[in-house]
Amino acid sequence: METEDVFREANESIAAKARELQLEPPIPFLCECSNKRCFVRILLTIEEYEQARSTPRRYLTAAGHEVDGALVIAQDERFALAEKL
Q1: What angle do CA 24, 29, 35 make, to 5 degrees?
Q2: SS3 of 42, please?
Q3: Each residue of 57-67: b (16+ CB within 10 Å) or e?
């Protein structure tokens, strides 16, 4: 399993628990870049996370972080979306 997929699974668990507990935003999600030593948190609402996750090939990363084999398709000051080809 690729590093970014491990972080993605962790984020899915975070999102599920945030929904269950009805947590108020922002929710701290993990950067899903390919660096296994990266523990940057990205603060989002559940809706922003779900939108970022709307396509299975997309990964949520901190701006400037990379996912092996992916291109950045969107970026702002808080986060970037990388999509594997």
Answers
A1: 170
A2: strand
A3: ebbbbbeebbb
Q: Please check whether residue 84 is in contact with residue 55, taking contact to mean a CB–CB distance below 8 angstroms.
A: no
Q: Is the dihedral of CA 56, 17, 22, 34 positive or negative?
A: negative
The helix or strand, by DSSP H or E, that contains position 27, with its residue range, turns out to be strand 27-30
Q: What is the CA radius of gyration of the chain?
A: 12
pLDDT digits (tens, 9 = 90+) for 39-49: 999 999 999 99
Q: pLDDT tens-digit profile of 26-73?
A: 999 999 999 999 999 999 999 999 999 899 999 999 999 999 999 999
Residue 82 three-state SS: strand
